[in-house]
Write a structure and sequence with these properties.
This protein is of the alpha+beta class. Helices cover about 45% and strands about 15% of the residues. The protein has helices at about 5-10, 15-25, 55-70, 85-95, 110-115, 135-140, 165-170, 180-195, 210-220, 240-255, 260-265, 275, 290-295, 335-345, 345-355, 365-370, 380-390, 400-415, 425-439, and strands at about 45-50, 75-80, 100-105, 145, 150, 150-155, 160-165, 225, 235, 280-285, 300-305, 320-325.
């Protein structure tokens, strides 16, 4: 069992009185709200925790209601929070011996939590209580970390460039049907700016996003992290990062991507240049596709991430977006396993949850929730089929402390945008700080 001191010290989470109070308030209802029993879900109750947007919250509550309507011996209790509050609360609860029995788990955090000894090994329940036989082989292996199956994928997605087809047609700018290169993206973005008379820009600024840098280095046959090294290191070179930053500097200087001040205000889907009609190319993931489409009447098409010409590995890949994990200290591991199997395999549950988190990993489940998009547009499943055709398998899950490196990239890129540093100094700063984080 992970001690409170060890977990909080290792998690990098700073917990003040507010976070501790929120954790206590959210953990009630199981007889363990004060952490006194350390059981995490006794008395016929199973706590399930998640974060998410409104649609995820709606579908999760419906799934829980459906499950509870069929059970007589256990009641699933929902615990919902925002992204930041979720992790603060979970760190506090697990460290205090009062973790939720089962919870949604991020692909950026699962290695970290596994290596802290916080997650249950699902392996003893595979085949008996949990059926993942329908998953593709590589998807079955995701979540097996250091010999323990600490997460089961519950959704899949891929990185994408969303394109406003209406705006591109209005300006007479083309777009690829399948793959394209970074040079072709730059040409298209600059063409947007020129065709609009300089009134709008081409693409959102991707210089601070790991979802953009990772395909950049993959297309060069490299990886974001070298998870085989001890300790983990960066899997690309300084020259790769310098050329990446210079690429975005050139686009920014020539009107191809959003200026720094505009990008700073366009940091959500709702405020994005894509939705505003001032930047028709936009980076996100396919799990966000339907949510973005709901914000604009424009026809939005997911396009693959650009690739490198002649690279030894393809930039695009399908990844497990979210997992379901369980607390290592749960008193009801079998009930947690039954709830997980219901989530991924029960046709009614699959239909209720839909694509709110991304495409289900089980092809049979994905077929149940397959959508018919407007003519000429791809559904999330259509897009992942395209990526399976033109891409390569995912490298590795985000290693421990990897999310901190992603956040570092965002800070360094912002310094470049606002002229607070130059590219050579930015690369050295990123490198030294990343090595410190990973070491």
């Amino acid at each position: 069992m992970v001690s409170r001191r060890m977990f909080l010290r290792g998690s990098g989470v700073v917990l003040g009185a507010t976070a501790l109070g929120a954790a206590s308030a959210c953990s009630g209802g199981t007889g363990g709200g004060d952490g006194s029993d350390g059981g995490g879900g006794g008395g016929g109750e199973l706590r399930f925790a998640w974060w998410g947007h409104e649609e995820m919250n709606r579908t999760t509550n419906l799934a829980i209601e459906l499950y509870n309507s069929r059970q007589s011996d256990v009641t699933v209790l929902p615990e919902n929070a925002s992204w930041d509050d979720f992790w603060d609360r979970m760190a506090t609860q697990i460290a205090g011996g009062n973790g939720a029995d089962a919870f949604q788990m991020s692909n950026q955090m699962i290695v970290d939590y596994t290596q802290r000894g916080a997650l249950l090994d699902w392996e003893p329940y595979i085949g008996d209580l949990i059926d993942i036989s329908g998953y593709r082989e590589e998807m079955q292996s995701y979540g097996v970390i250091d010999g323990a199956r600490t997460g089961i994928p519950i959704s899949t997605d891929g990185f994408t460039v969303l394109a406003d087809l209406d705006k591109l047609e209005e300006l007479g700018v083309g777009h690829p049907e399948k793959g394209w290169t970074w040079e072709e993206l730059a040409e298209a973005a600059l063409a947007v700016h020129d065709a609009s008379g300089g009134d709008i820009w081409g693409v959102s600024d991707g210089s601070g996003r790991y979802e953009v840098l990772e395909p950049w280095v993959r297309g060069r046959g490299k990886t974001f992290f070298n998870a085989e090294a001890t300790p983990v290191t960066l899997g690309f070179d300084k020259d790769d990062l310098a050329e990446f930053f210079e690429y975005w500097n050139n686009l920014r200087d020539n009107g191809g991507c959003l200026p720094a001040d505009v990008q700073a205000e366009a940091n959500t889907h709702e405020t994005s240049a894509l939705v505003a009609g001032t930047g028709p190319f936009y980076f996100t993931t396919t799990s966000e596709l339907n949510g973005v489409r709901a914000l604009t009447p424009a026809r939005i098409q997911p396009l693959p991430m650009p690739d490198q010409a002649g690279g030894s590995k393809k930039a695009n890949f399908i990844r497990p977006n979210l997992f379901m994990s369980a607390w290592e200290g749960t008193s009801q591991p079998e009930e947690a396993a039954k709830f997980l199997d219901f989530w991924i395999n029960d046709p009614e549950a699959v239909e209720v949850i839909g694509n709110s988190r991304g495409v289900p990993p089980n092809p049979a489940s994905a077929e149940i929730v397959e959508e018919t998009p407007p003519e000429g547009l791809r559904s999330p499943s259509d897009y992942l089929d395209l990526i399976a055709e033109i891409g390569d398998p995912m490298d590795r899950l985000t290693p421990r402390s990897g999310r901190e490196v992603y956040q570092l990239l965002g800070r360094i890129a912002e310094e470049i945008r606002f002229g607070q540093t130059n590219v050579p100094d930015a690369v050295e700063s990123f490198w030294s700080q990343a090595e410190s984080i990973l070491g």
